[in-house]
Write the structure tokens for this entry.
Amino acid sequence: MIERLSRKPWLLAVGFLLAMALGAGLYATARAVAGDTATTPERAQIERVVRDYILNHPEILPQAMERLQQRETARAISDNRSAVFDPFAGAWAGNPQGDVTISVYMDYACGYCRASLPAIDKLLKTDPNVRIIYREFPILSDESVTAARWALAAAEQNKFRAFHDAMFAAGQLNSGSIQRAAQAAGLDLARARTAVASDRVEAELRNNHALARSLGITGTPAWVVGDRVYSGAQDYAALKQAVSEARRAE
């Protein structure tokens, strides 16, 4: 049947296009694409091709959904590139001119985030052309929000990494460990308290949550590399592979 359709290029193209259509709208889509140029028998032929192809190759349905999701994610990243890859003050590490930037969404109460830190450190040591952007994404507790605010205050004093590392090293997240991390990082505490309550810090957290929704990010850690989003803890090999794929795509 495919061979017969190949004699009519528009019919073949429509058949493959419709093979990607999902759900109850499949046949309606076929008729809409065919339009007035196709006869009733031709429209019926299209519908049979689509139906038979999907029944014989059901694996294309999840593949199509995954491809569609990747396309939508890539579009969302492109439309919000500055919000994704431009750091808040000093909340970054690595090479500021690196050819690949990883934007990582973290919560200080997240054990999987803590488990991913060695992989980030190894990547920074082994790849001099990578930049890491840290996006505060507190979703697990009220203390997470407080810690995120202090992290952004630390970023304004160019002491983000010192606070970040001390906060994750503290283990338990509470008001006491947050204050100890701020002291260990050497923050100007009075200046930091002002920043914690500032509109700019509030706006950063609000924007991070809004952007996460548009990218389909619902948990931590989450990673934006190139035009893709990766979810969950990542080891060094996985991050290295994601960076390599981003480079190949450029």
